[in-house]
Specification:
Elements (H helix, E strand, L loop, with lengths): L7 E3 L7 E2 L11 E4 L1 H12 L4 H8 L3 H21 L2 E4 L4 E3 L4 E2 L6 E2 L3 E6 L2 E6 L7
Helix pairs in contact: 1-2, 1-3, 2-3
Length: 134
């Protein structure tokens, strides 16, 4: 029996959940699904340019596990780019990091900063970036 998958720690959930080639109607397009931990692996390695040991540590996985996740993510991205498929970000076995958030506007990492808002009698909390207040 296979060992259960360990939840991978992610620090960022992309605002855009879907990308597709321009000029092709949705009904005529195939899609490739990237899990959120695959997106996180690509973000850490290719955008933040960390080495694999640092990436694995931030995701709370072993270095070989990180390598497998990264290889699968890059394979899916290459398939979508070369064959003209859409890319959908969703699902996976992940846990959102408690310590830091990542601002999608300015790229700043920050601890939780709340802004309380009242809507229809309920209080909602929104995370605010201390750099750009978004």
């Amino acid at each position: 029996m296979a060992r259960p998958t360990k939840e991978r720690r992610i620090e960022f959930i992309p605002e855009n959940k879907y990308f597709k080639p321009a000029g092709i109607p949705m009904r005529d397009i195939e899609e490739v699904s990237l899990t959120l931990e695959e997106v996180e692996a690509v973000r850490l390695k290719d955008m933040e340019e960390l080495n694999q040991e640092e990436c694995a540590s931030r995701m709370n996985v072993s270095r070989p596990t990180f390598q497998r996740v990264l290889i699968e993510a890059r394979r899916k991205i290459a398939d979508a780019l070369i064959t003209g498929k859409a890319i959908r970000f969703h699902g996976g076995d992940y846990k959102l990091a408690d310590k830091y958030f990542h601002c999608s506007r300015c790229g700043e990492r920050y601890n939780k900063v709340y802004q309380n808002r009242r809507r229809r009698g309920k209080i909602y909390q929104k995370y605010l970036c201390p750099e750009c207040d978004d």
